[in-house]
Amino acid sequence: MDKFYIITNSEKDKNLEFTDAIVTYLEKQGKECPVQQAVRKVEGPYHYTNPELIPEGTQCIIVLGGDGTLLQAARDVVHREIPLLGINLGNLGFLAEVDRQSIYGALDKLMQDNYEVEERMMLTGTVYRGETVIGEDIALNDIVIGREGPLRVVRFMNFVNNEYLNSYNADGIIISTPTGSTGYSLSVGGPIVSPNASMTIMTPIAPHTLNTRSIVFPEEDVITVEMGKGRHQDCERGIASFDGDSVIHMVTGDRIVIRKADVKTKILKLNHLSFVEVLRQKMRDS
Q1: 8 A C-beta contact, residue 88 and residue 114
Q2: Spans of the chain, pLDDT less than 50
Q3: Residue 31 near residue 2, CB atoms below 8 Å
Q4: CATH H-level, domain 122-262: superfamily
Q5: Catalytic residue among 13, 67, 142, 171
Q6: Strand partners, 87
Q7: What pLDDT score was predicted for residue 285?
Q8: Pick the CATH number of 4-115+270-285 from 3.90.1010.10, 3.40.50.1820, 3.40.50.10330, 3.60.40.10
Q9: For 98, which of 57, 79, 106, 156 could close a Cys bridge (C-beta 3.0–4.6 Å)?
């Protein structure tokens, strides 16, 4: 590789000292490496990273921050189809496999073309009010449909391929990818799934029922979640959250249609460890 691009989280790299050190190291090897800071935008076609600023011919995007920063970058730049390498500047994560101590060895491997590329399934969610689309977005980890406002359970009606499946009185519902199975879904009892698989996992959050099991669907299935009425048959308010970041507001009767995205996130893998080995290390360290 010769052409790199850095997306950096300045909150985790104060004064961009670590970012500048990486740029200097690559430029000394005759490589190109422009930098863009990830800054939250309230409105517009992207959330944190402007994909139009990434030069044509870029071979690798280095994301400095952590799993959260990598999730943000993946959603913004996925249509550029450039593989991402996450550098973890915070707590140990599942997505950003390289830490501060191993960064220069990782850069050497990239320059020597010693790497693998994993493709990760993504989800799209489209929210309807009647037949009108009121919002849509994309997620690498998960789409969470939950209540908005005071603590109370909400009724969610679930459909698969337009066929009624079940209803949950719960705090919310997580629809996750295999990559997201080690995130929020895992914390509420969902299964761990190998990240290179293609399937969708539905997991209720604190359901008021004995049926608390996750349900796993094949990648081609389309899942619809509709917000029901409140306890006193009044209008309920909720949100659909994408990767714990952007949200679309919903009310009773609104529905979100979730399906496999047409695009995939490309993640660079350098350590050649299997998912089983990585999982064993995480479970040992937890």
Answers
A1: no
A2: none
A3: yes
A4: Probable inorganic polyphosphate/atp-NAD kinase; domain 2 (2.60.200.30)
A5: 67
A6: 64, 98
A7: 63
A8: 3.40.50.10330
A9: 106
